[in-house]
Amino acid sequence: MSPTKPFLVQRILAVSLILLLLLAGAMFLGLSMGSTGSGLKEVWQAFVTKPEADSTLNTIIWQLRLPRVLLAALVGATLSLGGLVFQALLRNPLAEPYILGISGGSAIGAIIGILMGFSRFPGVSLTAFAGSMASLLLILVMSGGQSILKRDALLLSGVMVNAFCAAVIMFLVSMTQDARLHNILFWLMGDLSQADIQQVWILTVTLVPCFVLLFWLSNAMNLLLMGKEMAHSMGLNIKAVSVTLLVTTSFMVSATVSHSGLLGFVGLVMPHLLRLQLGPDHRVLVPACVLGGGAYMVGCDLLARVLPEQGEMPAGVITAMIGAPLFVFLLKRSGR
Amino acid sequence: MRTAIAAQNLSYSYGNSRVLQNLSFSVEKRSFFIIIGPNGSGKTTLMKLMAGIVKPQDGQLDVLGRRVGDYARKDLARTIAYVPQMLHLDFPFTVDEIVRMGRSPHLGLLGFEQQKDFEIATRAMAFTGVEYLAHRKLDQLSGGEQQLVFIARAICQDPEVILLDEPTASLDLAHQIQVMDLMEKLKTERGVTVVMVSHDINLAAMYCDRLLLLKAGRMVRHGRPNEVLTFETLEQAYGCRVLVGESPLGQAPQITPVPWKFIKAHNRSE
To answer: Which residues in chain A have Cβ-Cβ distances shorter than 8 Å to B92?
Structure first.
């Protein structure tokens, strides 16, 4: 008898626990550190006892940093999980959450919102969400019927939608000259600085059911990777599963980027990093992406706030600057 | 009931091109059934129909006495397992993970395996002799080993009928015989009905109980190997010259396709 691996449930729990601790640690640091100085003690006290005085630091921690840290965790979780699902659905290791045109649609929506002078929340969030839903509808119509099962057709439709949107975005940017240009660029690079606790609640309520649904479909994602025919012969309703995965993931990514802007790279690299460490079983990877992706994003956002001497840099810069070399290192070490 | 699969006037078209036409045949339970025929004769489509991957358009197809379309997806998957032509995987699953996927139609709502499923998977790996590869990644294995893994996955599904599409193509001699021996063992020891598409007529003749010869979507002949494998039938179906002899092992016919240079030399000498 070959030794069987430890039971799946135990493995999922163990992985989740480790990543949850990582996430908690990252969030604790994220709350404590920032341009106004370190508040490790204050954060700790707030957890142990009640916050005593409403000092400026306390206000900064609970009203500015907390929403931002929570938003970062949600964004990292959603984008990582979105990348994981699209890599399985398209059976393509290069897939990421923006590959089917969601980014293009929501960017056009956001830019229109900014140009019309809407506030960041809820105005721009709503136009961005409307834009990405429009691009999802377009993809569904273009690949309607049987061809949703043809991943190359789906992929090419997405690439075309993105290319067209990129042209529209460049046109809109080239026509804009005032201060709104700065807002547009920050949105396109991904920006968590405008986080608001109300946004966080709305997103949490939206995302948690999506996470649960995708976890339920995690074994189906394993089967999808075995090819259409073999998956079908193991009793999988491929069309229903594919459409559910596509719509759920697009919806959850759209909801998220409409609040955060187009934070890049985390959705491509986190599934790969975790797959290298944990293997390709989606029943482990789905919870791992939610917790690990959240921790990674909180960490990157923290560095983006703390590293520059003054001001801050876009968190999207950090995700790729750390993620790409880290990924190459792990890939080398794994000897693939 | 002794019939595993029964087809009656089965037809199928992709758009305007008819791939299968008025096919009627039956496969006995616990038998080894092999489908042969030239490229493009509809063999793979027939396999997909039996696996429930495409639906019959005309005529009827019964699996264990029930219309294939009447089965719920998971019921059909618990009855019929399918090993498609070799595929390439982009994601690094290990051998035991792939074999355990065969338990999917038997799992509950969450898709978690129980102790029993692990045991069945281990037995399936032992059956095809890939147990020692359990923790290796599939892409590190040879083509022959990969095929044995996919067959173990199908066996792990615990089916009554197993369908294999050209399982011995691109395998070396030893692996070809190993795959065929395993299928015979599956038939005799576990009572599984084996249905296979093959291009290797000689290998087929040594193992199968019944042969079905297709050409351009129509049945040319259906029967025992020595009934189907006559030179008139084969030359009509394949459009090339063949010699039919007997295998040195006896019992089975042995087919030798005749190269053009021999035909030319023969014609000159006449």
So the answer is: 275, 279-280, 336
Answer yes or no: is pLDDT of B135 > 80. Answer: yes
Total structural domains in chain B?
1
Q: How far is A233 from chain B (nearest CA, A)?
A: 6
B132 touches chain A (CB under 8 A): yes
- Domain residue spans in chain A? 59-329
A226 at B interface, C-beta within 8 A: yes
Domain that residue B39 falls in? 3-269
CA nearest neighbour of A157 among A169, A134, A140: A140
- Min Cα separation B104/chain A (Å): 6
Task: Tell me whether A11 touches chain B (CB under 8 Å).
Answer: no
Structure-block tokens of residue A187: 């949105």
- How much is the pTM? 0.89
CATH topology of domain A59-329: ABC transporter involved in vitamin B12 uptake, BtuC (1.10.3470)
Nearest residue of chain B to residue A213 (CA atoms): B110
ipTM: 0.89
* 3 state DSSP class of A74: helix
Portion of chain A with pLDDT greater than 70, in percent: 91
By DSSP bridging, strand B242-246 and strand B253-257 are antiparallel
Cα separation of B215 and A40, whole Å? 78
The secondary element (H helix, E strand) that includes residue B124 is: helix B115-128
CATH classification at residue B59: 3.40.50.300
Task: Determine which of A139-148, A159-168, A306-315, B229-238 has the lowest per-residue pLDDT on average.
Answer: A139-148
> What is chain B's mean pLDDT, rounded?
91
A144 pLDDT more than 80: no
